[in-house]
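Ligand: SAJ. Inputs:
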Amino acid sequence: MKLCTMGLGYIGLPTSIMFANYDVDVVGVDIKREAVDMLNNGQIHIEEPGLQEALEKAIAKGTFRASVEPEPADAFIIAVPTPNKDDEYKSMDITFVMQALENIIPFLEKGNVVIVESTIAPRTMDDFVKPRLEEAGFVIGEDIFLVHCPERVLPGQIMHELIHNNRIVGGVTPMCTEKGAEVYATFVQGELIKTNARTAEMSKLMENTFRDVNIALANELTKVCNELDINALDVIEMANKHPRVNLHTPGPGVGGHCLAVDPYFIIAKAPEQAQIINLSRQVNKSMPSYVVESAEKLLAKHNGKKITVFGLTYKGNVDDIRESPAMEIYEHLHALPEYEVVAYDPHVKLSFVEKDLEKALDGSDLVLVLSDHNEFKELTSAYFSKMNVAQVFDTKNVVKEYADNINYINYGNLYK
Ligand code: SAJ
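Predicted complex:
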């Protein structure tokens, strides 16, 4: 089999290399020439454990090449970004998907399978992708087999999850589904769950939306409990002991390019109906202001001036600051002239980030923990001896080892 992948980002590249390691002849296409050159020289341009070794293996076998131009192939995979638009409901921007489709149309031959892996709004395959291919003269389900097979892998564990996760295969016709499943059977050891395209689109979106709504509930619970002087974290622990309850964890907000993006694709398609989804987005988006207000109240108690922000990434143990609520909080505090704000994050290599932990803590009046990096779990009270006022506000409930001489505040005891 020969495969042509459109987009060599954090999904397209690992997917291409995985196929290449299973003896599929792969050409990976990207518009960024530097990325293409790097890959052809055997060097990955994104961070992902195990990916570099896998690329080297594929290059040694001669089964992977990167290019700026598509080529004829048996199967095509589109794995390009689908950001939000700047409109009222932040609907899905289909531009990159349609551009990739346009680029492969001249190379399509009867019998080809065309797969969209990018996360897309419900009905995108039926209402946009299929009509464009029909316009180009193909009969879907006879000449071309069109499938939505959403990516569902967790950054940091992509190489493992690509093989072992269950995979949703949603064809535009039943024959499309069968042909799509044959492609992934190359390496997927999880179940290949066969369905239609629109069910696949909505299932993927609901996975991330479920998490977003559940986190919103936990964040709202935190606000309610702080009003009533109840420990929200204890409540969550108690409630989750029930066999059918699984409340997620509150935090400084929800970030990343999935949970903070995908729910809008549903809202924009059915704004009248998608009430809880919309409200949950608003609750999660309100959390950075809630953290800023709370931090200011804590500082005011001691007339504090210096804030040390621990963590800028959207979640722990990654270097990704896209849609990060931690960045939003940092920028908000930094813009206030009354405070000196220092950011410390061992995973982020930006010039304004302080690399020296002692310097970051020196004379500080408040440590504000915003990402749950492992490094923060290991800190003990000795590190905080240089602070002016030893108080820690831990929005991720990650730092559990602090001693009594530190005023430790988390979402469970915020306004006590
Ligand atoms: N978060 C909380 N509380 C929680 C869990 C997460 O506040 O209890 C926050 C995190 O701090 C972060 C955000 O939510 O800001 C999202 O983090 P995440 O770990 O839930 O998810 P992502 O965005 O890294 O990856 C998700 C995954 N989806 C699901 O687990 C349903 C992944 O499998 C998807 O492939 C990915 O989205 C995607 O590409 O759609």
